[in-house]
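Hello everyone,

My group is preparing for a crystallization screen and wants a predicted model to guide construct design. The compound we'll soak is magnesium ion. Before spending weeks at the bench, it would help to have a computed complex in hand. I've included the protein sequence and the ligand's SMILES below. Output in structure-token form would be ideal because that's what our pipeline reads.
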Amino acid sequence: MTETPTRANRPALALHVPEPAYRPGDAPDFSSISVPAAGEAPRPDIAAEAEATQPLTTHLVRVLDDEGRAVGPWDPRLDPDTLRKMLKDMKTVRVFDDRMYRAQRQGKTSFYMKCTGEEAIAVAAATAMDPEDMHFPTYRQQGLLVARGYPLKTMMCQIYSNAGDPLHGRQLPIMYSDKKHGFFSISGNLGTQYPQAVGWAMASAIRGDSRIAMGWIGDGATAEGDFHSALTFAAVYQAPVILAVVNNQWAISSFSGIAGAEQATFAARAVGYGIAGLRVDGNDALAVYAAVRWASERARSNKGPTLIEFFTYRAEGHSTSDDPTGYRPAGEAQKWPLGDPIARLKAHLVALGEWDDERDAALDKDLDAFVRAAQKEAEAMGTLPQQGFDNIPSMFEDVYADTPWHLAEQRDASMAEAREFLGHEPK
Amino acid sequence: MTETPTRANRPALALHVPEPAYRPGDAPDFSSISVPAAGEAPRPDIAAEAEATQPLTTHLVRVLDDEGRAVGPWDPRLDPDTLRKMLKDMKTVRVFDDRMYRAQRQGKTSFYMKCTGEEAIAVAAATAMDPEDMHFPTYRQQGLLVARGYPLKTMMCQIYSNAGDPLHGRQLPIMYSDKKHGFFSISGNLGTQYPQAVGWAMASAIRGDSRIAMGWIGDGATAEGDFHSALTFAAVYQAPVILAVVNNQWAISSFSGIAGAEQATFAARAVGYGIAGLRVDGNDALAVYAAVRWASERARSNKGPTLIEFFTYRAEGHSTSDDPTGYRPAGEAQKWPLGDPIARLKAHLVALGEWDDERDAALDKDLDAFVRAAQKEAEAMGTLPQQGFDNIPSMFEDVYADTPWHLAEQRDASMAEAREFLGHEPK
Amino acid sequence: MTQGPTKTRNMIEAINDAHRVMMERDETVVVYGEDVGYFGGVFRATAGLQKQFGKTRCFDAPISEGGIVGTAVGMAAYGLKPVIEIQFADYIYPGYDQIVSEVARMRYRTAGEWTMPMVIRSPYGGGIFGGQTHSQSPEALFTHIAGIKTVIPSNPYDAKGLLIAAIEDPDPVVFFEPKRIYNGPFDGHHDRPVTPWSKREEAEVPDGHYTVPLGKAAIVRPGEELTVLAYGTMVHIARAAVEENGIDAEVIDLRTLVPLDIETIEESVKKTGRCLVVQEATKTSGFGAELAALVQERCFYHLEAPVERVTGWDTPYPHAYEWIYFPGPLRMKNALKKVLA
Amino acid sequence: MTQGPTKTRNMIEAINDAHRVMMERDETVVVYGEDVGYFGGVFRATAGLQKQFGKTRCFDAPISEGGIVGTAVGMAAYGLKPVIEIQFADYIYPGYDQIVSEVARMRYRTAGEWTMPMVIRSPYGGGIFGGQTHSQSPEALFTHIAGIKTVIPSNPYDAKGLLIAAIEDPDPVVFFEPKRIYNGPFDGHHDRPVTPWSKREEAEVPDGHYTVPLGKAAIVRPGEELTVLAYGTMVHIARAAVEENGIDAEVIDLRTLVPLDIETIEESVKKTGRCLVVQEATKTSGFGAELAALVQERCFYHLEAPVERVTGWDTPYPHAYEWIYFPGPLRMKNALKKVLA
Ligand SMILES: Cc1ncc(C[n+]2csc(CCOP(=O)(O)OP(=O)(O)O)c2C)c(N)n1
Ligand SMILES: Cc1ncc(C[n+]2csc(CCOP(=O)(O)OP(=O)(O)O)c2C)c(N)n1
Ligand SMILES: [Mg+2]
Ligand SMILES: [Mg+2]
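Reply:
Good plan to model first. Here are the tokens for the complex, ready for your pipeline.
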């Protein structure tokens, strides 16, 4: 300890450590959160100066009102087929999550992560963008793959690390990657994909291409240095990129205040870099669609990047390794004022007269069967506990384009070990 | 190259690469830069919400007007003695820089960095803060040491890496470090000191101390991830810290646009994090003083951190390794509209009737003699070319508190080598 | 080997207790990292500390390993002793610049004026189906950096004693904890149940303060036929393999990689004339290379066979191929045979 | 060894030319980094490229090594071939996470779907009074990482040929350039003038396209008495020391550290029976350790003496003690004598 000076006339300093409003045992009450009415937020021109979006970084872009009507300037006026497709995709994601969560609990794989309550975000974003645009997702954007028609069975095979896994059992469950569906390889390291998205967008601009990129990050991960690199490079080169912050208010056990949300919104960061910022109701599929559309038009017309904060709530645990009752009240998700995105979109379709409870129930039944069928097919190719002794040489491939001598030696040693362990030649 | 889709209806994207207004051969003309009149910027309460400082992040806090008068709410109303002390310190820095630059050119050391044109910033900041407060500087804040009375001779000994060098010849010239003068060890790695300053301030708050910290960074280095860590931690824990960005508009050969200054000011970053931001005329010693004072009062009363952008111009090369005529017009510094900080402070003192040309000339003469005398003393202890074979064992000290066996062995081998090389026992 | 009353503790409990002991003794010790505050860490190593010592002594940090280390530098400069957690060793890289360029060199570059007494704790290693980013063993990336000490315990007793020693040490310590054995030692036979710590003597952990000195290895099994150098989880794999194969090997648990206990190593290898080096990390440029280089440099004329290395393969850690990657009993056995041939 | 007309070029000119050749042949090659655009880099390695190829093919980057590498990952994913400069190897650490966690593992983790053909160039090494942060040799921090290749040229001919090969390589390459010999080879005698490149055959650099293959070492001096393994600046120190001391050593310039040319090494050591390994980096856990470990593993029964290492010391690189730190002629001589004893 350095000498403490006698500075009697100086007040004592104190460290502020942010604390969420409620902890286990408390009765959560979100009535203090001010939720602006749907339709209230203005919609600036897509070519507006970044600074002009300032008010939208503290406001909340909302389209669906409490009666399920789409209101205000951000209403994207989608046709009923598109709305129904989004509803179906969101429901698919939820059913998929439930089944895979259960599969992990049954010991069929090592790990799973749901996106319950956040389904609107990835699904509506995928819907608003072109299929050729590239996403740099985190681990909670399974909705992108579903909305873009990636086979559920293949997702499951990845989760089971089985013979159908396009990633050859090399990645943790849910760390999907698929170039054809414009879905960049998910990293276990938080934040890294953010400057990568900017780099992809810069490349597209360098080549005079017309495709744009979208990068995704969680509220917690915005604290990483990569967040800053991404915003800096995006601003400097005016990269055609959309930078999404999915603010579900929790990292693992720490709340968004530990990432700085007490002092400013995540959308507000944008304007400080000269990037347009929008704060959007993430549980409102139409608002999400409209915001992504606005940002993509801006990017496509060389008007620069946009950062969009999707305000939502992580309704379940962080992953199968997490039990949130250890750090927040059990009932919080239900009290969350922005509601359930699936219920809200359904209500909208019903209000439009384009949907009803019967069709909804039938869809649920279909989806359940559909996901079960995919799961059956996937499991026919094996689950994790059966893996790890087939095609061992593949484990030594793709470290480099060609296998150097040291990896060849290691592969051979590894095969010899496996032979001895199994008592027969490995497959 | 991935397949280029046929997306005929989509416009071609283009990469924007920022370019400074003038390159070698151009005639620089800063008339387009709008310099707000002195005294115009409002001075918010030190407890103001960070958001309330937003207008001050694009404006420019200026106190000294063109006639050398101090005007407006930011006038710190300093007594003449303090003003004269600042003038003397600023002049000392300039003389020191000139002599050390020349010493490097004479081969007496390997490297030097001047802060010409930026003298007001460090000197006035040091004057505005308490002597017990801690600075985490970069390599252009020699003014802090001068203002705090650190011996010039010791600075020179560090520059010569000679027997009087408190850092034992281990650091590049100008990478000073002195705990007693509240001057943290300068790092060669840009940006690292920024979160360190925040950590020191957090520690002071944890201990209920009353001392605050000030971190320094250049415009170019704000792009490093450490800048973001610093702002994030400062905001989250409301650390009692002042974060200075010295925007001298150039990194080495790249201008501030490559760090993002085309799109937003550096001060504007602050508000996005919920940190108070000020943009200040860095060539106006009174404005610098007033802003640092405001921020230190805010920090001391647990009202949170402040980021201050000091707008200035790097009047000379980046270092002795750099020749700026390779990338910017030769006469730019002279055209720079915010003038010379020493001339401006002098004009103020003259306007106050507290100074005149005679005293000024006398001071210049004194300082010249003073710096020369220090240099003579320092050089009596040796210059770099004579170093490197005395006290070799010291080279192996301070890697750890105690010397482990492997370093002891290496030390002995090194001594044997030196003995052989010199033909006698090293000192 | 004990002081005062002991209690059976697993490694997490031992580590948790080391924190508590030091926070009680030294009010300058502060503990932070991702999820370490209210929740007590994803592995619960810091459970209960916030409650006992308050929010300003133990708190959650933003997800910014660079910021965590960077602020710790400032705190150490102030005079505190930060004990920070990096949630997984695989996530230490964003903090690597601050560790390498700042923490490691501060004492040196300031000629001792500013020192960095801090501990950077992090769970490392595989065997838990954690995939590429929850399984790495990056110790060699720290042993190459002058100015930091690298410590890896292999059991609860050492974990507590070494962590206390690390916190008390005047130099910065990178403290890697083998997460595979947090709850019980592991002999490498993934198809058999694990012995819990409670069945092992090294889990008898004294209450209160004691230290296991940094820089001192332990001979965990004396022997004559060959010397096995191991650390962390690999100590258990090595011991089990030696015993299963009826080999009279001397197994040395290095405990501290830098500074290394070269005396114990040299003495043993000069006695046995043979040496096997074990690491879980990828082979090339791992710490095993340094060990092999040192042993042959210093014991060459005593060696009857080349120093062999048992290591992880030079690939990322592949999720489904956990047990093909992991340096287990068979890899050990084959290497032991080779060294003895 | 040449193709077409040649011109005398120093290393910077050779490197600059490699860029130009590849930017002309392949429009997906983009070049960026701090100060590399208008000004052409602080060492001028990219001089003239922006003028010739335009601002979107060669440009200045923000001072963010993490952002430079991170955006390069995205560009490579798009289908470009980024050739990026890190201004000094000492400043590569903020980009280390992106290199280790992303660049190195992308091909593997995507089962070959996304590859990372990029080159990360950076001047490294001491001998220029650059102090602690302009002198480092961090190659071992990359050789430990599976998935990247590490290349270090020692002369203009190789620099151009290896850089072209690296740009054409389908895998990511970390390309460290020995800045001490940019302008002329250096025999380690800091008190004597340096021979300019123009006096050396390896500075006869062909115009246009040619490659020096990655993974192939060069025997720069054949010999019988012992084998010296070196790379970068140290190749010159080694050669000079061998010649000054009249030793008939075989000096091998590794050129690529990973993947290593093990065949050339083994053949030589089996012939000479003795081996000296040279690196400028700090000793502990340097790449020399891997070389020593490999050589004794694979050539043990041919070795007549331990493999010795000549290295920098395990301290930061101290400004005034440049020539005490630097592994120069005397350290070489003493080690050569030891290996031959
Ligand atoms: C660099 C890095 N540090 C730490 C972790 C461990 N980790 C995984 S997820 C997570 C929380 C992320 O929270 P957030 O960004 O809000 O995303 P969310 O899970 O809420 O979608 C943490 C700390 C990691 N994966 N990578
Ligand atoms: C991490 C790191 N990257 C690069 C450098 C090389 N470098 C030294 S100074 C400098 C320019 C810094 O510009 P700025 O931050 O504006 O400070 P100024 O020199 O203008 O005061 C660069 C690129 C470095 N020292 N550290
Ligand atoms: Mg979150
Ligand atoms: Mg600058």
